Amino acid sequence: MVVSAGRFFTAACALAGSALALSPLEVDGKDFVNSKTKERFQIIGVDYQPGGTNAVNTKSDPLTDSDACMRDAALMQRLGINTIRIYNMQPTLNHDKCVSIFSEAGIYMILDVNSPLANGSLNRAEPWTTYDAAYFEQVFGIIEAFKNYENVLGFFAGNEVINQDSTWLAPAYVRAVVRDMKNYIAKNAPRTIPVGYSAADVSDILTDTAHYFECEMSNSTNSRIDFFGLNSYSWCGDASYTSSGYDVLTEDFANATVPVFFSEYGCNKVTPRTFTEVQALYGEEMTQAFSGGLVYEWTQETNDYGLVMINNTNTVTTLIDYDNLQKQFNELDIGRIMKSNGSQTSVKAETCSPSIITSGKLLNSWGLPATPSKVSDYIESGLPNAPTGSFVAVSGGVIPQKVYDYTGKEITGVEFKVLTGDEANTPSGNSSSSSTGTSSSSSSTGTSTHNAASLNGPSVARGGLGGLFMLLASLL
Ligand SMILES: *[C@@H]1O[C@H](CO)[C@@H](O)[C@H](O)[C@H]1NC(C)=O
Ligand SMILES: *[C@@H]1O[C@H](CO)[C@@H](O)[C@H](O)[C@H]1NC(C)=O
Ligand SMILES: *[C@@H]1O[C@H](CO)[C@@H](O)[C@H](O)[C@H]1NC(C)=O
Ligand SMILES: *[C@@H]1O[C@H](CO)[C@@H](O)[C@H](O)[C@H]1NC(C)=O
Ligand SMILES: *[C@@H]1O[C@H](CO)[C@@H](O)[C@H](O)[C@H]1NC(C)=O
Ligand SMILES: *[C@@H]1O[C@H](CO)[C@@H](O)[C@H](O)[C@H]1NC(C)=O
Asked: Where does this protein have compositionally biased stretches of type Low complexity (predicted)?
């Protein structure tokens, strides 16, 4: 690949400053695209929730321990991760170092704005009791804390709010939160940061839920989601494209008008996980409907979904699932996956109307609750006294922690690499010239609905080094 002097110069200048930013991603039709190069971006991700759902309090959250972040970023680079999702954060804490580390590692972030702490989420059974200024101090606080970091891919307004336990009107409240967040961002953030919703895989209302949020309302254009995440655990063990129900999902979302991706995947009913679904998810068929996905989850917790085990602050073990996933990622044709496609970006939103809700099991009207007046004041003038983060300089190097593989053998020389230029991290394709990483974690159990029975051949895409070099060439 040929690298121009100009490009090197830019990279060097940026490095001399502080942390070098990845170009922000933006939504174009049903794809995420790089705002500078306009190349398509697909999520090769992991859910990051070290310590589990309760690892957030007023003093710490998953992005406050920079030693842990650097350790995880290095291991994520090695794995091939380009995006992490983080569920529970505390807006008043300082996240500069961790976010800068992930940015330098070439890793984007999708952030849930809700938290399990008091006033941190909507009550799905009675949302009107929590749709108030106290709740928006959390929501807008997260936007304030993260709005200046270019590697923030987007915010989730809600995770699995709509399920069997939610009230009939819950979708209107979630759509109102999306509206308020997008109005806040338009008024108070330096760029348009996408806002989405992450759904449980409850098959009878899944497509209705997507339609409810992605349709266009002329009287409230900002209430439309920018992307849709689906928590899907239907591919277990050596399933196939059809036995897992991925074929049905692909058909269901082929006509989506926003980017759709798996916000959690990785069924653990059969262990060790071999992640054969990776080849289907990034294969020719599914990439017309989906923009990749995030594996649930980075660290081993009591629910047994981890890729790595944090033994103690100085020792980490990469589990067999980590190796299995890395092998699958290394097979991907990154060049094809990240190629822009005009028919994907030219899709137009449908209009909200009762006819687009077909199950009879989901709200089919769009009268949204009015924004509470104090929340309108926050939107107008910004949330008072909210800390805002910014990048700091970080440098690369071999991580100090001891790393063992699943056989107990020590892995030496695991390095956190500062990527120069505007590169997202990619799977290594087993090339010595490039390292990749992994990281993640989150909580939340998926409700799997499409059950697999037959063992027909999965749809398999092959790729490898050629694709990787094409991507690097296009970035440089
Ligand atoms: C939650 O919000 C209510 C209503 O504003 C407030 O009275 C209460 O102190 C808040 N709780 C916490 C823990 O912040
Ligand atoms: C998707 O759109 C095509 C063309 O408009 C249509 O034929 C097809 O039925 C749609 N599929 C779904 C699942 O709505
Ligand atoms: C572009 O996307 C469309 C719609 O998703 C798909 O039918 C087509 O095969 C894609 N073209 C290429 C070259 O990938
Ligand atoms: C770390 O934990 C893993 C998984 O429980 C275990 O197999 C391994 O022996 C532990 N390693 C150390 C160094 O304690
Ligand atoms: C906005 O439009 C939607 C659907 O088009 C409708 O249900 C809703 O009542 C309208 N809201 C207002 C305030 O007019
Ligand atoms: C690269 O390939 C070699 C030989 O096939 C294998 O031993 C090694 O584990 C691979 N490395 C990675 C990172 O996949």
From this structure: 428-449
Compute the Cα dihedral for 407, 328, 100, 116 and give only its sign: negative
Rounded Cα gap, residues 372 and 378, in angstroms: 10
pLDDT interval class at 2 (50, 70, 90): very low
Tracing tokens 């939107």 back to the chain, one arrives at: 379
Tokens of 7: 């490009």
272: pLDDT strictly greater than 80: yes
Question: What are the angstrom distances between the C-alpha of 315 and each of 17, 72, 437, 443?
Answer: 33, 12, 17, 23
Q: Which residue has the higher pLDDT, 178 or 8?
A: 178
* Strand arrangement, sheet containing 31-34: 25-28, 31-34, 40-41
Q: What is the pLDDT of residue 440?
A: 32
* Ligand closest in space to the Cα of 333: 3
Pick the closest to residue 111 from 133, 141, 78, 66 (CA basis).
Answer: 141
- CA separation for the pair 101, 417 (Å, rounded): 9
Crossing angle of helices 170-188/206-214, nearest 10°?
40
Q: Which CATH architecture has domain 25-381?
A: Alpha-Beta Barrel (3.20)
Which atom from ligand 2 is nearest to the alpha carbon of 252?
13
The CA distance from 194 to 31, in Å, is 12
- Better-predicted residue by pLDDT, 65 or 456: 65
> Of 74, 120, 56, 81, which is closest to residue 414 (Cα–Cα)?
74
Distance 55 CA to ligand 4 centre (A): 21
Q: What is the mean pLDDT of residues 94-121?
A: 97
**Ligand 4 site residues, Cβ closer than 6 angstroms:** 309, 311, 315, 317, 404, 408
Residue 365 CA to ligand 3 centre (angstroms): 33
319-367: per-residue pLDDT in tens? 999 999 999 999 999 999 999 989 999 999 999 999 999 999 999 999 9
Relative to the CA of 220, which ligand 5 atom is closest? 1
Among 68, 78, 129, 133, smallest CA distance to 105 is for 78
In angstroms, the CA 93 to CA 58 distance is 8
Instruction: Give the C-alpha separation, 14 to 421, whole Å.
Output: 8
Taking all residues of the chain, what is their mean pLDDT, rounded to a whole number? Answer: 87
pTM listed for this prediction: 0.86
Q: What percent of the chain has pLDDT over 70?
A: 86
CA distance 20 to 430: 26
User: Other CB atoms closer than 10 Å to residue 412's CB: what's the count?
Assistant: 8
Q: Is the CB of 221 under 6 A from ligand 5?
A: no
CA of 285 to the centre of ligand 3 (A): 9
What single-letter amino acid sits at 92? T
Give the residue extent of every domain in the chain: 25-381
